[in-house]
Amino acid sequence: MHNHSIKSKLHTLERKFLALVEAKKAAEATTALRDLTSALDKAAKSKVVHRNLASRKKSRLASRIKKLAAAPA
Questions:
Q1: Domain that holds residue 48
Q2: How confident is the model over 14-72, as pLDDT tens digits?
């Protein structure tokens, strides 16, 4: 049950981040990415998710925010 609640929190944070990226709100998305990255690291530390999964998600999400920042406004 504990692991399920942690994974649910991760999914919620990821959906929030992706919604901000779709809305092209770079500042809010950066803050959301920071929160999501922290949560992924904590989940990997307690072995709720594999450390490679956390690393892969952080990398892919960071690349999305870089694309958003590079896109012409």
A1: 2-70
A2: 999 999 999 999 999 999 999 999 999 999 999 999 999 999 999 999 999 999 888 77
Say how far apart CA 1 and CA 57 lie, in whole Å. Answer: 23
Burial of 40 (0-12, 13-18, 19+ CB in 10 A): buried
Distance CA(41)–CA(35), nearest Å, equals 10
The sign one gets for the Cα dihedral 35, 38, 55, 72 is positive
Number of domains in the chain: 1
> Confidence class of residue 73 from pLDDT cuts 50, 70 and 90?
low
CATH code, domain carrying 49? 1.20.58.110
Amino acid code (one letter) for 35 = D
DSSP 48: S
